[in-house]
Amino acid sequence: MYFSVEQRNGDDSGEHSDASAQQALDGLRAELDAVDATLLDAVRQRLEVCLRIGELKRREHIAMMQPGRIHIVHERARQYADSHSLSPEFFDSLYDLLIAETCRLEDLVINAEPADEGPYHNGHHDHRDNHHVRHSSVPSANVES
């Protein structure tokens, strides 16, 4: 069982008047909004690191897919879930999404033309290189799997 009633923080007993219950709810929502802001920033930071990893993989001709690394990331998430009485299935799903975005971003970076070797010559685009993505089209975020 995940998140038993005894594990929750705060007073959710229902013994509030309507006004104080709304005030308590507003306070909890503000707390949740702050946690969400931290979570979103952490995901952005993770994606930015992954973009740097993609740059390194491109530069050093390292394969994008690293199944051993993916296994390590999933296992670490499962252990975290287990040690905090959380759902390992949820964390598997969460990391499946993060890893999919990591792969998408790394693929963009790995297949991008280096800034000094772009398919542009005298301002004209060489249409034979349409499969390449310019660095400026890669979002400012990185993910590592």
From TrEMBL:
Pfam families: CM_2. InterPro entries: Chorismate_II_sf, CM_dom_sf, CM_II_prokaryot, Isochorismate_pyruvate-lyase. Residues 19-110 form the Chorismate mutase domain. Residues 1-21, 116-145 are annotated as: Disordered. It comes from the Bacteria. Residues 8-18 have a biased composition (Basic and acidic residues). Residues 122-135 have a biased composition (Basic residues). This is Chorismate mutase family protein. It comes from Rhodococcus opacus.
